[in-house]
Amino acid sequence: MQSEKICKTVRQYSKTPVSAEDMKKLQEIAEDCCKVKNYVYDRFGGIKSLSKIYPGYTVQNEMTASGLREALGLPSVYFYLAVFDALADIKSQWNRTKFKILQLLGANENLTPEEKHYLRFVLKVSNAFTAVLNQKPIELADEIQKRYEEVAKKVEQDKLHRYLCRQVRKYHAKQHTDAATGFSVAERAYRYGDHGIYLSTKEKRKRVFILLTDNNQYKSQLYVKLHPDRNSIEIMAPVYMSVRSYEEYTSCIGISMGMFTMLTTSDGHFYGKEFGAYASQYAEWIQSQTASYNCNRSDNPGRKKYHAKKKRLEEQLHGYINHELNVFLQNEKPRTVYMVKLPKPKKGGTVSRINNQVSMWQRGYIRSRLEQKCKEQSIELKEVLGKDISRECSCCGAAGEQKGTSFTCPSCGYGTDKKTNAARNILKRGLEGKIVK
User: Fold this and answer.
1) Is the whole model's pTM more than 0.90, yes or no?
2) What is the mean pLDDT of residues 381-385?
3) CB–CB of 417/264 below 8 Å?
4) Structure letter (DSSP) for residue 93
């Protein structure tokens, strides 16, 4: 056993329907938290507040002085968590803006390599990025300042600063939310007991009791998600668990993901053979329901049954995925798992049925669950470069031919399943160090 710990999210559910009165009290907290978030988005989501959001204590002090908490009558255990949740959203939005601009830099043929290098430097150094947007001199720590001056010598700074400001104005947007579906809860705002949980309300010394389906108790920040339509709540709690380590896990495995067979290993083993059937059933049902809804949208009485069945099908599919991943790790006992870096999904295509099946592929879910399970068991998961990996012969390296599910190499005569060939190429590239960092 190792001392390293990882975090996973566990869920608790209300056992009996929540009364209308109690649900109203919880909804009031969620609505007030939503107002606090929007206030933070409006006040601190712009360029001038960039220097305040790291680490965020300036924002906390200004929010305390604003008087908003007293005006709403919201307990501090909810107010400040809503503030920091909004700050996290603002930081994520700025990261997305920077990433978008970095993507545009790579495709911009009007910029020289030196200019691109300078802009990348400014984007990655937060103080420099903040100074440029606020039209202030760039002043950094001694070592970084020297590096900045070396890069800045080769370019016209004012021109690039104007370019960067234009891109930020174009792609950065302040956030806003109308979703009052839940709220974060500090440890001081709840107490477990009597097979349930007591949650603080806006009334002093008054708590709402929710009977839960289990007797587990947690001591951490929780997130309460409300389901007024079902008169129920869902509680999400972070749990830190020790990472397991197994001495018998020694092999190195390459895996290839597919739309019909979920995983194929470099040893020719298959896991998730029924995955295609589950995914196709899900995709076809979604397609038929969407077509029916579009034809009768004005007279449609509601989609409650649709969402309920969709959730059941998703849970069935996700349960199968998790089961097959567990079987894969137990049988193969890998120390290192190599997989190809998955490309981003692209728009377009002419066959709607195939497009619908691809959109229901769940490859992102498979990737995230495999990553989580590998972390829990001290298994390395590494991604390799994937260019032409399915066309290359794993035996001799020449270009082969694919027909149906088979792969044949005209150069050496090697033939096997095309996914097995791809998995062997993945393992080969992984062992050769062609890893995506």
Assistant:
1) no
2) 91
3) yes
4) H
Token pair 């049902």 is found at: 285
Provide CB contacts within 8 A for 190, sequence distance 6+: 197, 198, 199, 200, 222
Dihedral in degrees, nearest 10, Cα atoms 98, 103, 105, 108: -150
Q: How far apart are CA 93 and CA 105, in angstroms?
A: 19
CB contact set of 324 (below 8 Å; sequence gap of 6+) = 262, 263, 271, 272, 275
Long-range pairs, 52-59, Cβ under 8 A, ≥24: 53/87, 53/90, 53/91, 53/94, 54/91, 54/126, 56/84, 56/87, 59/83, 59/87
Residue 57 has pLDDT above 70, yes or no: yes
Strand partners, 336: 252, 380
Please give the average per-residue pLDDT across 399-424, as a whole number.
89
pLDDT of 345 above 60: no
CA–CA gap between residue 422 and residue 196 (Å, rounded)? 51
Q: Is-contact 407 400, C-beta < 8 A?
A: yes
Decide: 14 and 213 in contact? Cβ < 8 Å.
yes
Beta-bridge partner residues of 265: 255
- Locate 284 and state its tokens: 């076809």
pLDDT value at residue 298: 64
